[in-house]
Design brief:
single chain; alpha+beta; four-stranded antiparallel beta sheet; elongated
Length: 101
């Protein structure tokens, strides 16, 4: 299953502000990318709003939650199950999202 992970933090909690936290973030990021059973497809950052976006794939949600634990120590986040757009559009073509009034 695919998930969009959105993490935000306040500017005063930004990992870039403190070398030790920046190092911890770097170590966390490398660990996330090598977590068995979790595939990171994209990791992106929006520097001004202090927001990270990750697209990951896993069949073990609990493993993903454990892998994200450190990130929650510097801010808050949201994990949303998503489907690839081609699959979503296929569902629309099948009428999955349409209801009769």
């Amino acid at each position: 299953m695919f998930y969009q992970v959105i993490h935000t933090h306040l500017s005063h909690d930004c990992p870039a502000r403190r070398p030790e936290t920046a190092k911890q973030f770097d170590e966390w990021w490398e660990a996330l990318k090598s977590t068995d059973g979790v595939t990171v497809h994209v990791g992106a950052v929006a520097p001004v709003p202090h927001t990270f976006y990750f697209y990951v794939e896993t069949d073990d949600y609990a493993r993903l939650v454990r892998a994200l634990a450190w990130l929650n120590s510097i801010g808050s986040g949201e994990v949303v199950p998503v489907v690839p757009l081609d699959l979503g559009m296929g569902l629309v073509r099948e009428g999955v999202y349409f209801t009769e009034d």
